[in-house]
Design brief:
The chain is an alpha/beta fold and 388 residues long. The protein has two domains: 192 residues, Glycogen Phosphorylase B (Rossmann fold); 181 residues, 3-Layer(aba) Sandwich (Rossmann fold). Helices cover 41% and strands 18% of the residues. It has 16 helices and 15 strands. The strands form three sheets. Strands 3-2-1-6-7-8-9 form a seven-stranded parallel beta sheet, with helices on both faces. It has a six-stranded parallel beta sheet with strand order 12-11-10-13-14-15, sandwiched between helices. α8 packs across α13. The longest helix has 20 residues. The radius of gyration is 22 Å and the shape is elongated. The protein starts with 10 loop residues before the first strand and ends with a helix.
Length: 388
């Protein structure tokens, strides 16, 4: 049987051990890509871990999940899924492509791969960058456990060079780098900001989880440094959005500074573009463990004045190493570097305009339409291996 062309309608199953009840990075990836593929005429399904309120049609909840710490964050992993349920799901919908998000658990996604039809193409996308030695060791052990089912994978994708290095180190595989997608049109069509949202005007925004590696404390260090050295205008103000275990300590620390600092808590997905557009400067000071940086592109697409990011490997890759957009995350220099960068962005219209334009030019590279074209070609290669 000859392989289908990339433009032919396929039945695609995204396989993901975690839930679709929340939209973190990997969830955003498969939902954004899935919507675009469905708009192109493909039939898209989601075979996922425990999910009760999915935003997507054709969602199949395959397991019960538990929450564990991993890679400087918390993630939900599946308990052993029913092979009968998996077999029935695969029988009810014959999939042309199963697209598994990696690394994956042997308890759910691994079982799906072991039961996949012989003529189904299997693609794995790697999303992870190691945050510490424990995550690297755990990834290597998981790679060894999944060695048998991973042989069922026909094509490998990594969302960045960093994620590709993780795949090579832990699973001994190499893949094509295809970045995370962003729906540029969606983020560019910003609706009116909800009541109570801050307005632009010397305004800095942080959006992210309040965990150590996301770096909210680094931004507070920069605000404190800027106050001590008179770097910011009088109407300078900062907004933090997100939740997490360090939220209360950040609030306590912010209360001792002179700069007006607001904490919005959780911001719904529909309100994120308006918040990011309100930023003269969107700041993402993550210190590591980042394989990509979707939120950077969301800020750019929403129309933030400029987007500044901690110079970790994932963000460096996403921003193509732009030295103006990236600031030091070294514990001895980050406060001064970020504070001076914020001051420059607020005082030099020429500098901030030039950076804004360079960042806008990145969007075509990461737009979901560009990414989907590349993914469809990988699907065609996977099918050629199975049916050629």
């Amino acid at each position: 049987m000859t392989a289908r062309n990339a433009s032919d309608a396929l039945t695609i199953g995204f396989v993901f051990d975690d839930t679709l009840d929340v939209l973190d990075g990997v969830q955003q990836h498969i939902v954004t890509l899935g919507r675009e593929l469905a708009a192109r005429g493909h039939q898209v399904h989601y075979l996922v871990g425990e999910t009760h309120d999915s935003p997507m049609d054709n969602t199949h909840s395959m397991s019960t999940n538990v929450e564990v710490p991993f890679n400087g964050n918390r993630m939900r992993i599946p308990l052993p899924a029913s092979r009968e349920l998996i077999r029935r799901t695969l029988d009810d919908t014959h999939f042309d492509i199963l697209h598994v998000q990696a690394p994956y658990s042997p308890f759910m996604a691994g079982q799906v791969l072991s039961l996949a039809d012989d003529d189904t193409g299997v693609v794995a996308t790697y999303h992870i960058a190691s945050a510490d030695w424990a995550s690297r060791l755990g990834g290597s052990l998981l790679g060894a456990i999944n060695h048998h089912t991973h042989r069922r994978v026909d094509e490998v994708i990594a969302v960045s060079q960093v994620a590709g290095e993780y795949a090579t180190r832990t699973a001994r595989v190499r893949g094509t780098v295809i970045p995370n997608p962003i729906d540029v049109a969606h983020f560019s069509q910003v609706r009116a900001a909800p009541q109570g949202f801050p307005e632009r005007g010397n305004h800095v925004v942080f959006l992210g989880r309040f965990v150590e590696r996301k770096g909210a404390d680094l931004l507070l260090d920069a605000v404190e440094y800027g106050e001590l050295h008179g770097l910011f205008p009088k109407d300078f103000h900062v907004t933090f959005a997100g939740k997490g275990p360090l939220l209360d300590s950040c609030k306590s620390r912010a209360s001792r500074l002179h700069t007006p600092i607001a904490f919005l808590g959780y911001v719904p997905e529909d309100d994120k573009p308006a918040l990011l557009r309100s930023a003269d400067i969107a700041v993402f000071p993550a210190t590591g463990g980042e394989s990509f940086g979707i939120v950077l592109l969301e800020a750019i697409a929403a129309g933030a004045g400029v987007t500044l990011a901690g110079d970790n490997a994932g963000y460096h890759s996403t921003l193509l190493g732009d030295p103006d957009a990236l600031f030091s995350i070294d514990e001895h220099t980050h406060a001064r570097d970020l504070a001076e960068r914020i001051s420059l962005a607020l005082t030099s219209r020429q500098w901030s305009h030039a950076l804004h334009e360079r960042e806008r030019q990145l969007l075509e590279r990461y737009d979901v339409r560009t990414v989907a074209d590349q993914v469809e070609r990988v699907y065609a290669h996977a099918l050629a291996k199975r049916r050629g």
